[in-house]
Amino acid sequence: LKMSWFWFYQPLHLLMVACLCHSIKAPTTSSHQSFNTNLFNFYHSLILADGKETTVHLLKDIPKRYYFALEEGRALAPFTITVTPCDVPIEWSILVHKASASFLGKAERGDHGTQEVPISQKAPSMVSTIFNYRGNSVETYMGMSSHSALYMLEFLSTERDTHITVYLTTDTTSGHLYPELPMDPRIDVIGIGHTTVTLTWKHSPSVLQHRDNIQYCLLVNEKHNYKSLCAAETAIRSSGMKLPPTLAFSLSPYLLEPQQVMILSNSELSIINKASSGEVRQICMGTKNTYTVPNLSPSTQYYFDVFVVNLLTNASAAYTGTFARTLEEPEPKVRELKDGKMIQIVLDGKKQKFYSLQYQARHKKIQFTFQLCHGQVQVHIIKNGKPVASENISGLRYFSMKGKLLDTYLVQLSSTEESNSSVKVQVSTHFHKPLFPLLPESLKIKSFSKLRTCNSVTIAWLGTQEKSKYCVYKKRIEEDQVWTELQSADGCSGPESRPKSEKVLCKYFYDINLQRAVTTETIKGLDAGTLYLFDVYLFGPSGIPIRYHSKIVKTRKKC
């Protein structure tokens, strides 16, 4: 800015008129060209709006300038400028241009001779930089402005194209666009668990004054802290996610992208953005200033940022971010397996924890038996530190192992469903004394639709070459109980847990020819148009039952 100071201290709305009048004179060619060049640069720059947040887009290595001055008639007034980088660090400065005191005196007295002063007699240069900053933090400058001064803000990004927000205000009496931070804006970690971290922070004065329009929002990620909400949203978008502006904070009903998950519970909105670099979780919790972040991974470092958000203006202020590392997952307790003894294990599907069993072989050949009672269970068998078997089991499953005396076997069990699962486990060296009966090729029960009547149904099931006992049970159910009954069926429970009234019959059956090892049974005395659940239990020499898959059949309504 090398223009004559005459043009700088004039109010902006009079500047064009003054310039046109002055341009009628005929100064020397060199000064005339210099003047026109600077005048062109000034009018092709941007005026910064007062009282409004402005988004500024910066191209790499290309400075961008904004100007502002007070309205005419205001001698001195406070003003604040807040700059929020939304990505990489930037450089920005505030420069002020003032005219000399003697020159200003002529202007303020209205001396018409000032317009006759040749360009060569312009006021002494009084250009000064009053503030400069480099970084990516939110910075606010507070100063006193004079109507005799013109201010220039210059912004520069040297890393890459980016954008920032700039807020200028000369009105300090009508409240704040940005919510206020407390004197101590730190976030305190008051509790750390294996999968949780508890945070607390001091209340914003804005929350205490305007509770209905202010709320806190928390950002959780595994990479680093963010110094502004603007920077956080930019990072989420740059990772390949399409995040609607202020989605998590305005509670607006935007449609989420496929890589986003929204959870709303207990008046808290949680949005999880999934990306290859990890997940970014956003949680808004109203005006609560203590929060326990759930569902974290053990032994993982997380970064936490709290933003206080004005819901009316969508402006936000960032607390000083913090980080914490969740506790390591405790080593699961190892339970000893005893030869020939069967135990039942219940697994928590939500926590996805391994349940460990250990056995030291007393014989070269051993056999593991697993009976799935409920849910889905994955089995890993490790011998002397090396994996030897891994499988998702269903029904009844045997694993025969051959090794050396005193080999150590570690059995790890885990649920593959979110709901609880259960399984029975046995290890034995007595192959000639099986704990469970010989099983047929299938444990399905078949019903014959053409043989259904209003008061009877006919079912069939497969048998084996071994003479065994089969018991049939029935239970009357309603339409809305079908799913619940099938899901809650326990494959390990025997008929002793059922009322005697549900028992239909027991019989022995076998056939040397497996192709003929099929038996049928017609159950009579049923009600018309009614749903029944049928179960068949197979008993072996040890007396431990195996339950066939439940079958639901409906009697005919009209016959």
Automatic annotation (TrEMBL):
Subcellular location: Secreted
Fibronectin type-III domain mapped to chain residues: 179-316, 437-545
Signal peptide per UniProt: 1-23
GO biological process, one term: nervous system development
GO MF term list: heparin binding
Domain of life: Eukaryota
Principal localisation: secreted
Keywords assigned by UniProt, alphabetized: Glycoprotein, Neurogenesis, Repeat, Secreted, Signal
GO cellular component: extracellular region
Cited Pfam families: NDNF, NDNF_C, NDNF_N
Function summary: Secretory protein that plays a role in various cellular processes. Acts as a chemorepellent acting on gonadotropin-releasing hormone (GnRH) expressing neurons regulating their migration to the hypothalamus. Also promotes neuron migration, growth and survival as well as neurite outgrowth and is involved in the development of the olfactory system. May also act through the regulation of growth factors activity and downstream signaling. Also regulates extracellular matrix assembly and cell adhesiveness.
PANTHER family: NEURON-DERIVED NEUROTROPHIC FACTOR (PTHR14619), PROTEIN NDNF (PTHR14619:SF9)
Protein's UniProt name: Protein NDNF
Organism: Nestor notabilis
